[in-house]
Each structure stands twice: as C-alpha cells, then as structure tokens.
Design goal:
The complex is a heterodimer. A five-stranded mixed sheet of chain A has the order 1-9-8-3-4, with no helix packed on it. A four-stranded antiparallel sheet of chain A has the order 2-7-6-5, with no helix packed on it. Chain A is globular and about 40 Å long. Chain A is built from no helices and nine strands. By secondary structure, chain B is an all-beta fold. Classes of the chains: A mainly beta, B mainly beta. At the A-B interface, strand 4 of A face strand 5 and strand 10 of B.
Chain lengths: 111, 112
C-alpha cells in the first residue's frame, strides 16, 4: 500500500473550517483514500473514504485532486471535540488487509 | 466506536504470565483485525482473521503471540509468557468484506 505524508500538527480556531492535507503521490488506481481520527486513549474512528470523486458525509468532506496524488479532509465547523490525531491512509480494499497508520496530523482546535 | 467491543479495557500481568484479549466484532462483520500501539506511536498491524481462518499474520511476532476467531464467540489475541515490551494498547477492528474497518476502544496491557 502507498505511503502518505501529512503535516505533523495544525491549529484551527473553533467554528472555522479545518483543512487537513495529505500527500499520496504513489497511489495506485485501485487504492482508496481513508481518513480516521484518534482522540486520546480511544480507538481510531472512521471518518470518510473515497476513490476519485469528492465525498461528503455528516462528519466531513473529502476532496481528492484530479491526479489523485493528494487529498484534503475538511471539517466544516471545527469544535473543541475535533481535537485529535488525524490519519490519512491509502489501501486497495481488494488486496490490502491492513491499514498503515503513519504519524498523522495532530489537530488542535483553539477556543 | 460503538459496535466493536473489546475486553478487558485494562489488563495487568506479571512477567511470564499469559494475557488474553477479547474482541467481539460489529454485528454482521466477519473480518477481524488486530493492531498494537506503543506510546506516542501509530497503530501497527498484527493479524487479519476471518471466521476460523487466519488470512494474514505478517505483523504478528512468530513466538508467544497467537490469534483465533472461532465459529462461535469473540476473537482472541493470546500472548504467552509476557515481557515488559508487550506493554501497549491493543486494538481490534472489524469490517464487512471490503468495507472500512471500525475499531474498538482497545485493551491497555501493562506488564509488571
């Protein structure tokens, strides 16, 4: 599975949109982009995933560039409870058995 | 993380004892994954199981560690003769076929 690159940390003001970037320049055609987050001492929480089209659900939006080499997770109105480590993962669901969790982005939402 | 149930939440063992960690997947999920997380690090894959079969154990140490997912009952991760280095948080995830994995809240294993 392709590796991803994320900034180690970011801050965001409460109520503003949080835009978390991810670089996955070696992604292959069958690999999806998944986003998870982990709040201290809890298990990772699934947020969203996509292949090439932009996706939106009740938690977030996922914007994938046309060449699929990078993506952005958008939390439209960040709250203090969104403070967590966010992981961007690429995986082929047909052949990849595991998720590779890198170091992620530590997002701090500031009041 | 409602749905995937792990127990116990905290487990303390002395060196040389056995540790058994249990995971009940979400309803309807037949795929189970185990990960280990050391302090200040990301999760590391250990093993992937489907009912009664180990599909991929490439991340699991060859000795002392074993996993099973019987036809009936929870998946079990078993660590024999524990050592201090086994202290970590162990997370279980489940999925339906190729769907996203959903995680439990983990078992924190401490070795005295």
């Amino acid at each position: 599975d392709a590796k991803t690159t994320q900034p180690p940390s970011m801050d965001c003001a409460e109520g503003r949109a949080a835009n978390l970037p991810c670089n996955h320049s070696t992604i292959s055609g069958n690999e999806y982009v998944y986003w998870y987050r982990q709040i201290h001492s809890q298990g990772p929480q699934y947020i969203i995933h996509g292949l090439k089209n932009n996706e939106t659900n009740e938690m977030a939006s996922l914007i994938i560039t046309e060449d699929r080499k990078s993506s952005t997770l958008i939390l439209p109105h960040a709250t203090l409870r969104d403070t967590a480590v966010y992981y961007c993962i690429v995986r082929d669901p047909n052949t990849g058995n595991q998720f590779y969790f890198g170091t992620g982005t530590s997002l701090t939402v500031i009041p | 993380n409602a749905g995937v149930m792990q127990n116990p939440r905290h487990l303390v063992r002395r060196r040389g004892q056995e540790a058994r960690l249990r995971c009940s997947p979400m309803k309807g999920h037949s795929h189970v994954y185990w990960y280990r997380q050391l302090p200040e690090e990301g999760l590391k894959f250990m093993v992937y199981l489907q009912k009664e079969n180990i599909i991929d154990e490439s991340g699991m140490p060859k000795e002392r560690f074993s996993a099973e997912f019987p036809k009936e009952g929870p998946s079990i991760l078993r660590i024999q003769q524990v050592v201090r280095g086994d202290s970590a948080a162990y997370f279980c995830a489940s999925s339906a076929a190729q769907g996203p994995q959903h995680f439990g809240d983990g078992t924190r294993l401490s070795i005295l």
